[in-house]
Design a protein that fits this description.
Radius of gyration: 15 Å
CATH architecture: 3-Layer(aba) Sandwich
Helix content: 40-55%
CATH class: Alpha Beta
Strand content: 15-25%
Number of domains: 1
Order of helices and strands: EHEHEHEHEH
Structural class: alpha/beta
Number of helices: 5
Number of strands: 5
Largest sheet: 5 strands, parallel
Length: 155
């Protein structure tokens, strides 16, 4: 299974980078999970709409062909860990790579969000971007553990 997390913003606090690396190192070889951090657009000379359009183009360029596009959005569907694991298993069976997208400080372009296969909400709370990266990696790892009867997930 190939999973790519595309995130706008390259610099993470040390604690978040350590946590991301910890989860990335837990996956077995048959689960290729990668984080691709893209440059955030300069916010001093452009409108928010223009910034989001430029960032959306950067994201589109990084998405593999035929990928399932899962966009993280506060208005997305609220899945349990078990339901996310089930969806990941179905996508794996289809042989499609899965891409999770984390937008920039101003969010994601409306048109880009409409192109997603799934809008997914991690929480009703507003979360810092660094925490979102850690949480989505943790949930992907939890999905792996559920699908492989690993003791990490205890219901």
């Amino acid at each position: 299974m190939k999973i790519l997390i595309i995130a706008i913003g390259q610099k993470l606090p040390e604690w978040a980078q350590e946590a991301c690396n910890d989860y990335l190192n837990r996956f077995p070889r048959d689960w290729s999970v990668e984080v691709k951090a893209l440059k955030a657009e300069d916010r001093t000379t452009k409108t928010i709409e223009k910034i989001m359009q430029i960032e959306a183009e950067r994201i589109r360029a990084a998405i593999p062909k035929d990928a399932v596009l899962v966009i993280l959005d506060e208005r997305g569907v609220d899945l349990t860990s078990q339901k996310l694991a089930s969806k990941l298993n179905n996508w794996k069976d289809q042989g499609r790579p899965v891409v999770f997208v984390i937008g920039g400080a101003d969010g994601l372009d409306k048109q880009f969000k409409s192109e997603g296969d799934v809008l997914l909400r991690l929480s009703s709370l507003t979360l810092p971007h660094a925490m979102v990266r850690v949480l989505i990696l943790e949930q992907i790892y939890r999905s792996w553990s559920l699908l492989h009867n690993h003791p990490y997930h205890r219901a």
